[in-house]
Design a protein that fits this description.
Length: about 350
């Protein structure tokens, strides 16, 4: 069986969009139980908590470990809630199955490594649990799809993906740049695979969670994974992106759900998706333009130090010809490129002139 043939009807059991919520990290049994008790099961159907936390630098809190699985199991027994946790390697996956965890997700740092994915897939062979795959940290759609294909090859039939955004060298208002067009391409190629948005990791900021959650539903996502905490500011990890269960409910109550595609709404649905792609690409363009202007400022400073004129006609002509030639290969008209390049060059010259006048 291949990925396109899978009938992912497991998502249809939920009358409302699936929302998986809980703390970034399980910190204590008391904390886990309090959060679960405060979650409104009409809006948050699955309880999540990080047990093992892959961190960027050593010395950071890396999770309570296997003891936290006992706390998750208690949530499942006392509140009759399905439970979810991240598995970063094969041993984590085996332990999660032993504790009857219902939803296992593979994190972005694991998805990027095919060897790790293969080991996890083999440890989960033929499981009937739902396995969710977060996008890799870098914007590589093939790695994301490859992870799903490795799971399918091991007889795993209940699959979904989580869009948590992509790491980027350039700064933006997001912790992880959403790059919606990558997730939408996966959605186009595999419309049968449910997709959840992860506004907590995309934004890294609690004040943007509502905005990104709505954007996900504008693009017909099947649900969300959101980090909630009983005391967000005191969280042991990722405190800035966590909210209270009550705050998440307020967001979900206000969410506007878009209609599913049908013949009459097909145009509007496609239009919303393409507009989402344009919004994301515009954000990327702005980030690149800002980075270019920063380099122009450095050049201005260098020219000032060496008493060199700002405008270099030979350099400008070479740059313009090269950009127009490359742009035309990409289907962009010479007239459009001429106007764009002149505007960019004008702004660069003005920035360098201000540096010269200081």
């Amino acid at each position: 069986m291949n990925l396109q043939d899978l009938d992912q009807n497991w998502i249809e059991q939920f009358e409302k969009p699936l929302v998986i919520a809980g703390p970034c990290s399980a910190e204590s049994e008391k904390q886990v139980m309090e959060i679960a008790e405060r979650m409104d099961r009409n809006y948050m159907q699955v309880f999540r908590a990080g047990i093992w936390k892959p961190r960027t630098k050593p010395g950071s809190f890396e999770g309570v470990g296997a003891i936290g699985l006992n706390w998750l199991k208690k949530v499942k027994d006392e509140f009759n809630m399905p439970i979810a946790t991240e598995v970063a390697n094969a041993s984590h996956a085996k332990l999660a199955l032993e504790f009857d965890v219902d939803y296992l997700w593979i994190g972005a740092r694991s998805t990027v490594n095919p060897f790790t994915i293969q080991e996890i897939a083999e440890s989960l062979r033929d499981t009937d649990k739902v396995i969710l795959v977060k996008n890799p940290v870098n914007p590589d759609l093939d790695l994301w799809i490859g992870a799903l294909e490795r799971l399918v090859a091991q007889g795993i039939k209940k699959l979904g993906v989580i869009h948590r955004g992509f790491s980027s060298y350039n700064q933006s208002k997001y912790r992880n740049n959403p790059q919606w067009q990558i997730a939408l391409e996966l959605k186009d190629r595999f419309p049968n695979i449910p997709i959840l948005g992860d506004p907590s990791h995309i934004t890294g900021r609690r004040d943007l969670i509502a905005e990104v959650a709505q954007q996900a539903f504008n693009l017909e996502y099947n649900g969300l994974m959101v980090e909630v905490h009983n005391n967000p500011d005191g969280a042991w990890s990722d405190s800035k992106q966590q909210i209270t269960p009550e705050a998440l409910k307020d967001i979900l109550v206000d969410i506007i759900l878009r209609k599913k595609n049908d013949n009459s709404d097909d145009f509007s649905a496609q239009l919303n998706r393409y507009r989402g792609e344009i919004d994301e690409l515009d954000n990327q363009l702005l980030g690149l333009l800002a980075a270019r202007m920063d380099v122009a400022k450095k050049i201005g400073t260098l020219k000032k130090e060496h008493n060199v004129a700002i405008f270099q006609p030979d350099r400008w002509n070479v740059l313009k010809k090269l950009a127009i030639r490359n742009g035309e290969r990409m289907g962009l008209s010479e007239d459009f490129l001429e106007h764009l390049l002149v505007s960019i060059h004008k702004e660069s010259v003005e920035l360098q002139n201000k540096i010269m006048e200081k």
